[in-house]
Amino acid sequence: MATTVAIAMITFLTAHTVVVVGQTTQVLFDVSFRVALVIDVVAWIMFGALVGWRQARLPVERLQGEGWFSRIRAWELGGRIYRKVTYVHRWKDMIPDAGTWFGGLSKRRLPSSSDGGVARFIAECQRAERTHLGQLLALPLFVLWNPWHLFAWNVVFALVGNIPCWLIARFNRARISGILARRSV
Predict the structure, then answer these.
(1) Please, which residues have CB within 8 angstroms of residue 71's CB and are 6 or more apart in sequence?
(2) How far does CA 181 lie from the centroid of its chain?
(3) Cα 73 to Cα 79: distance, rounded to the nearest angstrom
(4) Confidence category of residue 24, pLDDT binned at 50, 70, 90
(5) CA–CA dist 64, 121 (Å, integer)
(6) Mind listing the pLDDT tens digit for each residue in 36-92?
(7) C-alpha distances in angstroms, 84 versus 74, 91, 95?
(8) What are phi and psi of 105, to 5 degrees?
(9) What is the pTM assigned to this prediction?
(10) Average pLDDT over residues 11-23
(11) 116-129 burial, b for 16+ CB within 10 Å, e for fewer?
C-alpha cells in the first residue's frame, strides 16, 4: 500500500503541463484530445459496467435497511418534493431501466409477491441509487488525463447520465416508502 502511494505521489509530481487555449493545466498523462476522448468513453463504459455488476452482486438483504446516507428524509414528503420540483413522474418512463442487465430486477413494475413484492422493489430502488451515485465517484480519475475543458464535459456527462436515474429511483423508493408508512399508521 505504501509503495503504491509513493509511486502515485512521484507520478503526480512529475505530471506534464499542457497549454490549452492560452491557459495552463496540469495533467498526469499528456495525451491528445482525441486520445483523451477515447479514453473517456472506454473508462465510462468500463466503470459503469463495473459498478453495475458489483451492485447487482449485492445480496438483497444488504439493501433492505436504510443507513444514515440512504434513509428517506421528512423533507422528501414521500417523494412529492421530486414530483413538484423536477416533474419526475412525467419523464421517468422515457429513461431505460438497466436493472436487469446483470441479473437484477426490473423496476418498471412492482414485482410479484413470489419475487419479494414491495420490499424487493424498495431494495432494487436502493440498489439503483447506489449504482448511479457510485458511478459519480469515478469523476476524480478523469482529472488524470483530461485538460480542464474536457474534464468539465466529463462532469456534465456524469451528472446528466446519472442524476436523472438516481432521481427516478429515489422518487420511487420515497413514494412507496411513504405509502407503506401511511398504511401502517
Answers:
(1) none
(2) 27
(3) 10
(4) low
(5) 10
(6) 999 999 999 999 999 999 998 888 888 877 778 888 999 999 899 999 999 999 999
(7) 15, 13, 19
(8) -115, 140
(9) 0.76
(10) 42
(11) beeebbbbbbbbbb
**How many domains are there within the chain?**
1
**Contact between residue 48 and residue 137 where contact means Cβ atoms under 8 Å apart:** no
- Residue-range definition of the domain harbouring residue 36: 2-184
Q: CA torsion sign, 52 to 57 to 60 to 63? A: negative
What number of other Cβ atoms are within 10 A of residue 140's Cβ?
9
The SS3 call for residue 22 is coil
User: What sign does the dihedral 111-112-115-121 (CA atoms) show?
Assistant: positive
Q: Are 175 and 76 in contact (CB under 8 A)?
A: no
For the beta carbon of residue 155, count every other beta carbon within 10 angstroms: 13
> What burial class does residue 70 get, using C-beta atoms within 10 Å of its C-beta: 0-12 exposed, 13-18 middle, 19+ buried?
middle
Distance of CA 5 to the CA centre of its chain: 26
For residue 146, the model assigns a pLDDT of: 92
Angle of CA points 78, 83, 89, to nearest 5°:
110
Q: Give the percent of the chain with pLDDT over 90.
A: 46
